[in-house]
Amino acid sequence: MSLLQQDSPELDDAARGEEFTKGSSHVVLAGIVAAVLVTAGIAIYVIAGQKPPVAAGEIVQVWAHPQHTETPGFDANGAPMPKETFDQVFVFAQIRLRNQSNQPLFLTNILTNATLAADKIDSAYATTAGDYDRVFLAYPNLDVPHGKALRTDATIEPGQTVEGTVVSAFKLTKQEWDARKDLNFTIAFQYQPSMVLAPRSAVIDR
Description:
Layout: H1 9-49, E1 55-70, E2 85-99, E3 105-115, E4 121-125, H2 129-138, E5 155-156, E6 161-170, H3 174-178, E7 182-189, E8 192-197, E9 204-205
Parallel strand pairs: 1-9
Antiparallel strand pairs: 1-2, 2-6, 3-4, 3-5, 3-7, 7-8
């Protein structure tokens, strides 16, 4: 028998080892591809299942008007009485809301939230549309645009955008108001999560 025809155990073992290594690399590569495909499938499923928020909105502009009031030193009959003083800050906010769902949205209230200097949060509900107009009658010196009121009980139809102005009153001095750290607005809907919006521009002080 020729030497070339003789089997070599060493060569056979080496060949089997090389084939085993090749098979292992194919298994590892197939595992990596499968993991990538599974991850991509989960991501597509999650993204497809997500829905946009039912509502979108923005605080277009905010005006603040500190009001110092002092009562007269007499009553309705003209009799003298001690004077009283009190301070408050009217916060006017022009708000734009859009219904992004396929069902009507029912606005229930709007809350103005001010974070004061000591990290205390002071909140005040926005007035009704009727009281909004009465504020301008009671305080004719207000240097704030008298725009259309936003109804705090408005119904927003699917795809509809509503816009208007609301007013909230805080029992604060001008100094306390000026020292605030933050300001935002909570928009509450019936049967839906509330939405918190922050002003997109600086508050205009009047």
